[in-house]
Structures are given as C-alpha cells and as structure tokens.
Specification:
By secondary structure, this protein is α/β, with parallel strands linked by helices. It contains twelve helices and ten strands. It folds into two domains: 45 residues; 234 residues, Alpha-Beta Barrel (TIM Barrel). It has an eight-stranded mixed barrel. Strand 8, helix 11 and strand 9 form a beta-alpha-beta unit. The chain is globular. The two termini are 36 Å apart. Bound molecules: ligand C2E and magnesium ion (2 copies).
Length: 297
C-alpha cells in the first residue's frame, strides 16, 4: 500500500520520477484511511443534504430548473462544501454510493416542485463509467416517480472520449434525460468531446464569467455560437452581476445560473418559494429567498 502511495504521489507530481515513501506520505495514508472510514459511515447514516441553485432563462428570468449541490452535514465540523469531500469520495470510489444517494434525493425533491421544472445532478467521471450506473439512474426515477424529461445530468470531460461513456450517455438520453457538459472551457475541453459526446447543454465555466475582459467576451460569444451550431443550449454559470448578465444576453446565451440570481438554497426554501409561486414574469429572482436566507456556500 505504501508503494502504491509513493507511485500515486509520483504520478500526482506529474513527472516521470520514482516517488520515495516519506513520513508525510504516511500521514497522508492515515488521513486517507480515516477519510474513507468517516465518509463511508456518513453515507450509511445519510449525513448528506442537497442545496439547490436556480437556472433561469436569460431573456425572461423564468426559472426552468435547479442544480443539486451536495453538502455534508458533518456532526462536528458543520456544513461542508463539496470541495472538502468530493475529491476523497472520488479517490476512494465512495462517490458511487454517494452519487446514488444524491440522485435519489434530487429526484425525490424535484417531485415536490411544479411539473415543468427539472433538476440537474452532477455526475463525476468515475460514477458515469461505474457498473450499474444507468440502472441506478433509472431506479431513482422509478422510485421517485419523476419523469425522465425532468432530470438532467451534468458531466465533465476527462480527456480522451471513452466509448463506454458514450454508450452509457446515449442510453440515458434515449429515455429522455438531458446531458449537460459542466465546466466547459477548463481542463480537457476539446472539440473532440463536443463532437463525440451526446450532449444537450453546454455549461460555460464560471472562470470566463468571473473576470470578464475583452478576450473572454470573444471566447464566450464563440462558445455560444459553437453550442448553437451543434444544436445545444448554452448556459453560463457563476453570473454575479447585472453587467455580466447583460453581456451574456448580448452574446446570445440562453440560460443563466449564479449568485446574481440566487445562491444555492436548502431544499425547504426552494419548495416554499415554488409553492408560493411569487415569480413575477419577466423579473429576475436575485432577491430569491429574501434577506433571511442562509448563506448557501
Ligand atoms: P459545479 O457543478 O460547477 O457547481 C457550481 C459551483 O459554483 C457550486 O459550488 C456553486 O455553489 C458555485 N457557484 C454558483 N454560482 C456562483 C457564482 O455566481 N459565483 C461563484 N463564485 N460560484 C458560484 P459548490 O456547491 O461548492 O460545488 C462545487 C463542485 O462540486 C461542483 O461544481 C461540482 O463539480 C461538485 N459537486 C457538487 N455537488 C456534487 C454532487 O452531488 N456530485 C458530484 N459528483 N459532484 C458534485
Ligand atoms: Mg455542475
Ligand atoms: Mg461548473
């Protein structure tokens, strides 16, 4: 195991060098082992909760769906954000059972919303190619009663496009689930994946929106054009200001998500908001949840 770790470390360093086992690696091994145990227990005792962030039409501000974002209600450390545990969950394979729990919770919650609103669930590459993933998705739909057209899956690129991945996605899409490519413009983004992966929505990464300058504006415009040319919908995430929203509208981007509209909210707030049905048409909902809402991270 220590040798594996040294190798892992060498690989992680991204160089062709032989890793040497060091006390810090031992500490990391211990950390990983306890993270594995802790996370496994947390899955068993269902310590996870979903927050939801609205996705709205750029033109009218109408809410069309919500992205489910997982949080860990840690018994001693408080509410943890995904950056604090998704990495470990992926490394240890626990993302598979955690992902199934997330899917089930997301579908169950969406059943409480109006029938025209979808839920978008993040799926990591490990989950997507894990055996039984497709049937777990179908089971979540069946158990909750959510129609497949109200479920979207947000996937990310991993480099070379895998045939297995394409097959899995095609099957999910054939039953009516929409596939969205998350974080586009970072990491391994390539035209190859845009061409090969069966996709419905292109999600432009927030890094392009955050510090908007002339170069980014050209990039965003072309990404929107590419999405259109490929018959995909374009969605910009990380929209924080009215100015960014305007620029995105000018660029022809169709769907918007970000703190400007609303921070991710606990499920109960979303259900209350939707049942109150207070959305004035044509108005944005950046006051969504009001001043009393908890900070949704
Ligand atoms: P993501 O899917 O790209 O989600 C968007 C992230 O950006 C969320 O962070 C969200 O809270 C944050 N965000 C939204 N609007 C804004 C904004 O206007 N400005 C800024 N600066 N940030 C904004 P969060 O919830 O911490 O999630 C981080 C990542 O963790 C997600 O990125 C996703 O990759 C992953 N993740 C979250 N939930 C799940 C899950 O259930 N399963 C898996 N596999 N991954 C998940
Ligand atoms: Mg996402
Ligand atoms: Mg993203």
């Amino acid at each position: 195991m220590f040798a594996d770790l040294a190798l892992y470390e060498a690989k992680a360093a991204g160089k062709r060098r032989v890793g040497r086992f060091s006390p810090s690696l031992r500490a990391q091994a211990n950390q990983r082992a306890s993270a594995l145990q802790e996370l496994g227990q947390a899955i068993d005792s269902r310590e996870f909760e979903l927050y939801f962030q609205p996705q709205v039409l750029a033109a009218s501000g109408r809410i069309i769906g919500f992205e489910a974002l997982v949080r860990w209600n840690h018994p001693t450390r408080g509410l943890l954000s995904p950056d604090q545990f998704i990495g470990v969950a992926e490394e240890t394979g626990l993302i598979v059972p955690l992902g199934i729990q997330v899917l089930q919770m997301a579908c169950d919650e969406a059943m409480r919303w109006s029938s025209d609103i979808f839920v978008a669930v993040n799926v990591s590459p490990t989950q997507l190619v894990s055996s039984g993933f497709g049937s777990a998705v179908l089971a979540a739909l069946e158990i909750s009663g959510l129609p497949s057209r109200r479920l979207q899956l947000e996937i990310t690129e991993t480099g070379a496009v895998d045939e297995l991945e394409i097959e899995e996605l095609e099957q999910l899409r054939s039953v009516g689930i929409a596939i969205s490519l998350d974080d586009f413009g970072t990491g391994y983004s390539s035209f190859e994946s845009l061409k090969k992966l069966p996709l419905d929505i292109l999600k432009i990464d927030k890094s392009f929106i955050a510090e908007w300058n002339d170069d980014d504006s050209a990039v965003v415009k072309s990404v929107v054009e590419v999405a259109k040319a490929l018959g995909m919908q374009s969605l910009a995430e990380g929209v924080e200001t009215a100015e960014q929203l305007q620029l995105l509208r000018d660029a022809g981007c169709e769907v918007i998500q970000g703190f400007y509209i609303s921070r991710p909210q606990p499920a109960v707030h979303v259900a209350q908001y939707l049942s109150a049905a207070v959305q004035a048409s044509g108005e944005f909902v950046h006051s969504f949840g009001g001043a009393s809402t908890r900070d949704g991270h």
